[in-house]
Amino acid sequence: MENAEVESDILRSVRALLRELDGHHHAFQGERGMLRWTLHKKMDRNPLNSAILVKILVKELERAEKGDYRHYIIPLLHTLMYTLIKAPCISDDLYERVYDFCKKLLTLPKPYCTIGLDYAFRLKIERVIPGVLYQRMIISEQSLKSDPYPYQERVFIFADADVLSKAVCNSLVTEAKAAQMYQNPRSCMCYVITRAVQAALGEDCDVESFQRILQNKPTAELEHCFRQVAAAVECTGSEMNADRGRHAERLQKIYSMVLNSSAGGGSSPGGLHGTPLPNPNLSFHLWTDEDQLWKELVLFVRPLSRTCEPDCLSQELDNFEIQDIVSDCDCCEQTRFSVLSTDSGIERDLPAVGEELLPPSSTDVEHARLQRKGGIKKKACLLESMALLQNSCNGPGAKQSGKLHRKSDSSMVSMPHLHRLYTARIVVLGDDRVLGRLAQAYYSLRKRETRRVFLTPRLNLQFYYVPVMEGQPDTWPTQDHTTPGQMELCELAVYLGKADPWYESNINTLCHMIPKLATMPSSLSTHPMSDPFIIDVIAYYVRLGIQPVYFQIYAVKIFFSNEAQEPAEDVFLTELSAKVQDCKAPKDHMQTKKKTTLEVPGADLAVTYSKVLMSNRKKEVEVLLRSTGLVMKAIPSSETEDLACLNVNIAEVVKTSNLSGRSFSSATNKIRTRHIKIQSMEQRTFNLCLDKDFRRTYTNVVGVEVSPCLEPSYCLQKTRTMKFSLHEPEDVGLAKYMPKSLLLPINTFAGIIQ
């Protein structure tokens, strides 16, 4: 009877989750975004109920697949996988049902087949090696030292202090610290050992006694036991014909060894117990420096640099472009001197034996001839460097035509010899203004990597976006309503919410919830063991949000009225707006001016653009019009728009004549283009603002050119190719196969659901 009540309660929670996806959960608007979190917290408090939840989720998945409820599949599948990772033990029959369902998804279009293939691969490993997904997640997220699995991850949360209030930033810092207060390498190693043993042996182990013995062990012995467990799990994973029984025997030996090492080391089965899943290792940063993102990534990849003095570390980062990488962090102790080598490095080019300074009879002649002393460090091959840069570009390696507006795909195809041991998950908080700052930082990082490849072969970079807006109503625009004016600061989040319902349900709901929670008295200060809601949701997002949506970054070249001033170059992601400045005439001119003269607002603009056609052919258009301003939108209003283009709205001034004389009216001239050039034909200038950020405003502008931002590595290869083929209009050589446009990937749960 008790199990029936538990099952009924869990089923109600799952059905409420599905009603929220349908938009039929208006009675409890305050709970939007918390239903999934509440469901998983129920499982954390009663881990034995995880098997019941898995059964219910499998039934709902099968029902959604048979009926016309495809929009349920990905949310239910993510909920199921997160439950399987945290569950203490799941029967093989349930694993088989979930695995068979994932294989069925391979017949569906993207993103269902992509996610189904990924989860089918994980489930196949988990069935043979129970607990391997949990173990790898903890080892990488907590940066535990493990030779068999040397991968490391870190979550970087970036917030713009000019966008978010001090109260919100302090609240996030407090919650981040509270979430990691009781996390340390020792407790995480205990979690890994306990979970691996329990997943392999099931109810045949005494978990309570085992945990007590582990906690009382010295750190050195605990690390030794952890290394044994990690090696046993990865050894099974590397075998061609891995066997679950042989894996259980290995863990049984470690379990018996630990129990026998303690006095009174008898064991009696005590049932299954849940193992906590700690939040990832994360750090909170206020975005104050343009190069702050790059510096944090370098310090993550080179942790030994943190042992340097602060002044030396800052100087090392500033001079990074011209200094060699010194792996043992000897930047504080010694200086490296480079000596130019005059030989070619080829054995046949070495001088004859008779020309050597040493006598031919010397026994060390051959050894001396083949030595290379004091030479400059060999640079990577050009083709190898370009291949690394190509592999680091998001999306397929072949250059795209640019016709599709939003590419959505899984992780990029990796090169066989390229194993990135580090993964940085960048989470940005704020509105479209912070995304513009992210686009700037990403473009700067790509230019650095083009000049000198360092992070690319070592680091896997993932971007995540959590919208946060203060001082707005608690309602969020749904697909059935038009976006109100005050929500224009979160256009990209609205687009992602329409494209991915699970992102809308879990992440977009944080937009007004985070500022609201910041004003409430925090329970974390008095009860540190309280569940940190925001950090838990971010952890869920970075763990399961692996389907990126790619957004085109646009380059803009700005010309000023002062011809002596050099044109400025910048990039933007969401919007460019321009407003013609009012021309104030002198007073004496106003007095002599005839009353019949009508002052027409705006300025005459010459607009040259390439018209977007479905055939992807180029058609240049030139128009001359009078305008008071314009807005270029890079984010479409609907997720069904597939053309990669800018939507330009020009406020045109139209002169009219009637019985009362000449007058004028305003009209909106709409243009869809990828390349556009605007030039003022008068002395009037206009103000330019990028990504709705007042800090990125340009004044006294007379001209602007906008085009898709090119990938820096493509530009470098194109320049090198042009030296040898000056008359080739099309891309040749390696440039032909490199991504041309620079795209910013924002990870979601499903990508774009067609």
Automatic annotation (TrEMBL):
Biological processes per GO annotation: G protein-coupled receptor signaling pathway
GO molecular function, one term: 1-phosphatidylinositol-3-kinase regulator activity
Domain of life: Eukaryota
GO cellular component: phosphatidylinositol 3-kinase complex, class IB
Pfam families in alphabetical order: PI3K_1B_p101
Name of the protein: Phosphoinositide 3-kinase regulatory subunit 6
